[in-house]
Amino acid sequence: MSDQLLPGSLGAGLSCAEARASARDILTGLHLPPADMDDVLTVVTEMVANAIRHAGGVTAFHITARPGSVTVEVSDRSTTAPRIQPWAPDEPGGFGWRLVNQLATTDVHIHRDGKTITATLQAGQA
């Protein structure tokens, strides 16, 4: 991975497709292995989708690539922390936050305007 810090930010009303495109643009040229790129894009998609479905929408999106890691931050309007749903393989949905936590180290920061979730993926963690 590159030795430079590569940040990128987008704001409110972000869609999953826009977030994935932004992540691809920011990470282009870092020569991530395909599995690592797929993991980052999966985390981006799940975090943004959850913000849209469960938390009033995305208020901020930020992705940063550093040597050996990629950090994804998604802010939303809800002050309710996400929780891993009970395992129910016969029911649709409910796997996104579990998947994010399997692929990345996560942190939830509740603030006055909602929350910011940070997911950090390490290179080769796949």
Q: Which characteristics define this entry?
A:
single chain; 126 residues; alpha+beta; 5-stranded antiparallel beta sheet; 5 strands; globular
N- and C-termini, Cα separation: 15 Å
Strand order of the largest sheet: 1-2-3-5-4
What structural class should be given to the helix and strand makeup? Answer: alpha+beta
Count of DSSP helices? 3
What number is the mean pLDDT?
84
Spatial shape: globular
Element-level helix/strand string: EHHEEHEE
Largest sheet properties: 5 strands, antiparallel
Radius of gyration, taken over Cα atoms and rounded to an integer in Å: 14 Å
What share of residues is helical?
25-40%
Number of E strands? 5
**Unreliably modeled segments:** 1-7
Note the beta-strand portion: 25-35%
Brief account:
By secondary structure, this protein is α+β, with helices and mostly antiparallel strands.
